[in-house]
Design a protein that fits this description.
By secondary structure, the protein is of the alpha/beta class. It is built from 7 helices and 5 strands, in the order ααβαβαβαββαα. The chain has helices at residues 2-9, 13-24, 39-52, 66-69, 89-100, 138-154, 156-173, and strands spanning 30-33, 56-59, 78-83, 104-110, 120-126. Helix 1 (2-9) packs across helix 6 (138-154) and helix 3 packs parallel to helix 6 (138-154). 34% of the residues are buried.
Length: 180
């Protein structure tokens, strides 16, 4: 609870709103990645953003294949990176290359701030400290979910159409069982 309170107390609402509008804007592609621990958050955000908008890619940050993902990166595209302490050199290098290619780097990081901060146009700092050997990503997940809702709201008509099309495909493939 303390991590959530401290994280929310330090989030600039104007910066958060600017980020949600940036992610809702389909005039550029959106690339999402994370590190060894935060890749789960990046995959979660990626799955939701794929439903909300087109041109969303997930970069496997822990793979040596990530340079392939940057081949199509255009100036003005957005690269959103999750990076917390034990900051990974490969993720830092990915951010540097993306920045050098003209991408707009967005960073979700911890209270100590990843070195990627130097390349980030927008940086959201989340408190991750926990009384265990592991850091807590609860505050990052909360911000991620709030961001998903804000981006969906900013582009609801488009999102609604995409969600309906996806549900139609699910119905056709019978991937999920219907209970109604």
């Amino acid at each position: 609870i303390g991590n959530i309170r401290q994280t929310l107390a330090h989030i600039d609402p104007e910066q958060f709103d600017a980020l949600s509008h940036l992610l809702a804007d389909e005039s550029h592609a959106l690339y999402i990645t994370g590190g060894r621990i935060t890749h789960a958050l990046s995959e979660y955000l990626h799955l939701h953003m794929q439903v909300i908008r087109a041109r969303v890619r997930h970069i496997r940050g822990t793979s040596n294949a990530w340079p392939h993902d940057l081949l199509d990166l255009q100036e003005g595209d957005v690269v959103l990176i999750y990076d917390i302490r034990r900051y990974e050199n490969s993720t830092l290098r990915l951010a540097e290359i993306a920045h050098d290619r003209g991408a707009r780097v967005v960073l979700f990081t911890d209270q100590w701030q990843s070195p990627i901060r130097q390349y980030a146009e927008i940086s959201l700092n989340c408190r991750i400290q926990a009384p265990s050997a592991w850091d807590s990503t609860v505050a990052m997940m909360l911000l991620s979910e709030t961001l998903i809702a804000a981006v969906q709201e900013a582009s609801w008509e488009r999102t609604k159409n995409r969600m309906n099309a996806l549900e139609d495909m699910f119905d056709q493939t019978k991937i999920f069982r219907k209970f109604v």
